[in-house]
Structures are given as structure tokens and as C-alpha cells.
Amino acid sequence: MLENMAASRQAADEDPDGVHDYFHGDKWRFLRERGLLDRVLVSLNLGTDGFQFLRQNGFEGWPIFATPLSVSPTQRTGNKYQLLLAVTPGPRQPVDLESFLHPIAGELNELAKKIPGLLVDNSATPQVLRAGVLNFTTD
């Protein structure tokens, strides 16, 4: 993770010949210019897509999942890196996904208060990890 963060900071400083990955994009450069990438940031892609439970009554579910972008592209496409955050029930898609995300962020902030840091590969000292939503995809 630390190596990927260092590579992404370097890529954001270079002049790319097109977009190759998330850290070549304008949003990543915006975060880099403001110094928000100086520590370890777990950038996330949030997404949702609907599915029908039962066709007879039209009941649908809309899972909200997060994919950490701070791992290599080959790793982040694996199922074990797709983190299920919530499933919104209802006959149709949710009108306001943000109302589901605020309680999740609140729970994560509560957990973070009790953890002084995490040991990350290639680091002898505990690191404080920060997470941020870089983009959101839906169908």
C-alpha cells in the first residue's frame, strides 16, 4: 500500500500522455496539490446496482459496495476487495444514497477513535489510515 501511494504521488506529479489509472486523473491531482496525499490515503470507489429478490412483488435490493483503489489494478478487481457496506431495501432504487453513507462513516469514525494506528507492510511504525471517496459509480 505504501509503495502504491508513493507511485501514485509520483504519477500525479508527472505530465501523463492520457489517463491510465485513477491517479492520472484531475481529482487525484487536485488532492495532491492540496497536500492531502502526503499520508496514507485509502481512496475508494463506491458503487451500487440493483437486483430483484422476488419478481412477483417487485421487491428490489440495492447493495452499496466500496472498492479500495490504493491496491494494484489486478488486486482491486478481485471479489475479496469488493467491500459490501449496506443493502438498501425497497420496491425501487433509493432516492438518497447519501443518507445511507453518513451512518457508515459515523461508525467508522467511532472505530477509528479506539485504534491508534495500523501496521502496514514495509513500515515499522503504526500508520493512521485515512479514507476518501474518489468516485461513485452506479447503473
Write the layout of secondary structure elements.
Blueprint: H1 2-13, H2 26-33, E1 41-48, E2 51-54, E3 59-68, H3 73-76, E4 83-90, H4 98-113, E5 130-138
Parallel strand pairs: 1-5
Antiparallel strand pairs: 1-3, 2-3, 3-4
How would you sum up this structure, described in words?
The protein has 139 residues and is α+β, with helices and mostly antiparallel strands. The protein has one domain. The protein contains 4 helices and 5 strands. Strands 1, 2, 3, 4 and 5 form a 5-stranded mixed sheet that branches. The protein is globular, with a radius of gyration of 17 Å. The model has no long low-confidence stretch (mean pLDDT 77).
Q: What can be said about this structure in brief?
A:
The protein has helices at residues 2-13, 26-33, 73-76, 98-113; strands at residues 41-48, 51-54, 59-68, 83-90, 130-138. It is of the alpha+beta class.
Strand content: 25-35%
Provide the low-confidence segments as ranges. none
- The count of β-strands is 5
Overall pLDDT level: 77
**Share of residues in helices:** 25-40%
Summed up, the helix count is 4
Structural class: alpha+beta
What is the gyration radius calculated from CA atoms?
17 Å
Shape: globular
